[in-house]
Design goal:
- This protein has one domain: Rossmann fold, CATH 3.40.50.
- It has 9 helices and 10 strands.
- The protein has helices at about 90-110, 125-135, 170-175, 205-220, 230-240, 260-270, 270-280, 325, 340-365; strands at about 25-40, 45-60, 140, 155, 180-185, 225-230, 250, 285-290, 305-310, 380-385.
- The longest helix is centred in the C-terminal third of the chain and has 26 residues, at about 340-365.
């Protein structure tokens, strides 16, 4: 990353590999979809499971041009969580936010990189630190979601106990490079149940299909892509063998990649193992995971499909695939940052990963590849369908 102090914005990482000119402005909008195949009951609501959708997209104007009817003020992180909803869904959404906040504290704020003991933020509470980070400015403006513009669309699926907006930097990075980026909740708040408890104990293919159908409409004939992290990647493997759902798939650390014991995998991830051993995948796939070794990943060697592998050469934590985990850097100088150097190293790899993801999807779109920037030393081990490749042989 950079040796200088980072600006206090949510996009403090992603522009390291962007073009030297100022990034194009991006819009943010929210909307509401329903999964009619899942029934949700709780907090006064009874009906189909609601999908609270967030979308980032290019505005198609320059910063020197007129903003028009746009709010001239950029959104803050907390503003991304203020959708206008029907009255029966307001309590459901508020309960979801409480659980998302609790997960953010537990997985993104409480512990240092590679540390087991909680960070002492005194005199601040964890809640105050969270509120301070959520007050940071994003790069997005409120705008109407364009329904008549052809551009590639990405659906992002968060991990177990994850957050719909856990990858704001990724969303903004892709929007600034010409993509529409969609995210939503794949969890619902349940009374007297741990956050992340599913409505049905099976892969939620219906919610993924609902979101991908919506993505197809937004794409207007352009490509549709799926990015999943952890459980979100597992859900991708269980679903995307169906033809026509996605034009490419990026799998970010399912946690199966370094496993060599098929009995253990069968016990812990039986549905994923069944999917990858019985189905073929009709789209290019990019797999990213830190296995402390070199790809291809043992459990995925026999998968039928075009697969590229990226394995970071330096340690890369499971939560480091999300910008929510890296947000603590923005608090430098205001509250304690005991793992400053380690966190910056994770952010550096995150930025390198974003450049790789962009290059992969630009290639799938048939567009000029603008990244990644050539580096003195390649930060990844690489392989493609069992053979190695270099950054210059795409």
């Amino acid at each position: 990353m950079r040796a200088t102090l980072l600006p206090l914005t949510l996009s403090l990482v992603v522009h390291l590999d962007a073009q030297p000119e100022a990034p194009a402005p991006i819009g943010f909008a929210d909307t509401l979809l329903f999964n009619d195949s899942l029934h949700h009951t709780g907090f006064g609501y009874v009906g189909p499971a609601p999908l609270f959708v967030q979308a980032w997209f290019p505005l198609g104007i320059t910063m020197a041009g007129p903003v028009g009817r746009l709010d001239p003020n950029k959104l803050r992180f907390r503003d991304l969580r203020k959708p206008r909803l029907p009255a029966p869904l307001e309590p459901v959404y508020q309960q979801l936010l409480l659980r998302m906040d609790s997960a953010f504290l537990e997985y993104c704020l409480r512990y240092p990189v590679a540390g087991d003991g909680p960070i002492a933020y005194s005199p601040f509470t964890e809640a105050q630190v969270k509120d301070s980070l959520f007050a940071l400015t994003t790069h997005a403006f409120h705008a109407e979601l364009p329904l008549d513009t052809a551009r590639p669309v990405i659906l992002y699926h968060h991990g177990a106990q994850g957050l719909s907006d856990e990858n704001v930097w990724m969303a903004e990075y892709f929007a600034e490079n010409g993509f529409t980026f969609l995210a939503c909740n794949f969890h619902w708040p349940l009374e007297n149940a741990m956050y992340g408890t599913p409505l049905m104990w099976e892969p939620d293919r219906h919610s993924i299909r609902t979101m991908l159908r919506f993505a197809r409409k937004l794409a207007n004939g352009d490509k549709v892509f799926y990015i999943g992290h952890s459980w979100g990647a597992q859900e991708g493997w269980c679903t995307l063998h169906e033809p026509g759902l996605a034009d490419a798939f990026i799998s970010l650390e399912t946690t199966m990649e370094w496993k060599t014991d098929s009995a253990e995998v069968l016990d812990k991830w039986p549905l994923v193992l069944d999917a990858i051993t019985t189905h073929g995948y009709p789209m290019p796939i990019l797999m990213v995971a830190d296995t402390e070794g070199e790809p291809p990943f043992p459990m995925f060697k026999g998968v039928r499909g075009e697969i590229r592998y990226l394995d970071p050469k330096l340690p890369f934590g499971h939560e480091s695939y999300t910008s929510a985990y890296l947000m603590r850097m923005a608090g430098e100088g205001r509250f304690v940052l005991p793992d400053r150097e380690a966190l910056r190293a994770q952010a550096d790899l995150y930025a390198a990963m974003l450049a790789e993801l962009l290059a992969f999807l630009q290639e799938q779109c048939g567009r000029p590849v603008t990244g990644p920037v050539q580096r003195q030393e390649d930060p990844f081990h690489r392989a493609i369908s069992g053979a190695s490749w270099s950054p210059g042989t795409r």
